[in-house]
Amino acid sequence: MIEILETALNWVSRLCIAVASIALVVLVVTFGWLVFGRYVLNATPTWVEQLALLLICYIAFLGAAAGVRENTHLGVTLFRDMLPEKAQKVVMIAIDLILAAFGIVMLIAGMELMQFGAGSRLPMLDIPESYRTLAITSCGGLVAIFAGLRAVLRALTFGEDWHLHTHAEG
């Protein structure tokens, strides 16, 4: 069961990275169109700035969620590493639970922002403002799932070797 769950979480993380990567490619292409339009066609496409803001939200938030899953965010482990192994494991589970709580707060706040912005439209793109805040909501839900399930899995495997001093702790 744990292997199936880990495989599913890895798949979701890879999907986040793929969507963020596609958004990055679209961002680069649209800025290329902006430059071409401005300097070659002498007609600046005004929608590029709004699309860029939307894409950056998805790139940042989906990348952040995947970073929680892959455990690639910057962390200071000096004090944790000085603790005995069991205490290190307790600290790691506590950190995962705090991250999961933060993800839940992001999810709830993101849903409120989506409801608030549902009636307004993004300028130049003419799509609901809630599309932008969907990135925040998605990130919050994914962080809650990734960190919360990692805390549960760590608690279930507390007696096993976690390779505490490697870069990839997940």
Q: What does the model show?
A:
By secondary structure, the chain is an all-alpha fold. It has one domain (2-156). It is 74% helix and 0% strand. It has 5 helices and no strands. The chain has helices spanning 2-39, 48-70, 78-81, 85-117, 130-156. The longest helix has 38 residues, at 2-39. The two termini are 17 Å apart.
> What's the number of helices?
5
Report mean pLDDT, rounded to a whole number. Answer: 90
H-E order: HHHHH
Q: State the end-to-end CA separation.
A: 17 Å
Question: Strand fraction band?
Answer: under 5%
Low-pLDDT residue intervals, each spanning 5 or more residues? 166-170
Number of beta-strand segments = 0
The computed structural class is mainly alpha
Keywords: Cell inner membrane, Cell membrane, Membrane, Transmembrane, Transmembrane helix, Transport
Family: Belongs to the TRAP transporter small permease family.
Function: Part of the tripartite ATP-independent periplasmic (TRAP) transport system.
Pfam family, one: DctQ
